Amino acid sequence: MRRSGSVTFEHVRNPTQRIALSNLSNPKVTIFYLAFLPQFVPGDAEHPTLLISGLGMAFSLLTFLVKGLVGYFAGAISAWLRARPRALTGVYRTSGAMMVGMGVKLAFERRT
């Protein structure tokens, strides 16, 4: 179901290109850069636009590196767990026990 006025990238088959188009068309990223980065540019800077662009590129590069590493290791761990069903069962049981434990703790928490 498509909402009126929404943009979709269904015609793009490559997931990387689809993500890139989605990010480029997202105004929140631009608004974040324009709101956050100017505070790091001196008021008397000779080329403030160039400095803000450089900071934006540095932020984008660092974000890409961090998210790329997270994605890579998440895929590696996922493949490792899929190859070892007992380990995956252990993860399920451990995370389930932790959720039950937190629920019990929350149920007995005193309200102030």
Which properties best describe this structure?
single chain, 112 residues, mainly alpha, 71% helix, 0% strand, extended
Short summary of the structure?
With 112 residues, the chain is mostly helical. Helix content is 71%, strand content 0%.
Report on this structure.
With 112 residues, this protein is mainly alpha-helical. It is 71% helix and 0% strand.
Write the layout of secondary structure elements.
Blueprint: H1 15-24, H2 27-36, H3 48-83, H4 85-107
**Global shape:** extended
What share of the residues does DSSP label as strand, in percent? under 5%
Instruction: Specify the number of helices.
Output: 4
Radius of gyration: 22 Å
Count of strand segments: 0
The unreliable regions are none
> Roughly what percent helix?
over 70%
Q: For the residues shown, what is the average pLDDT?
A: 87
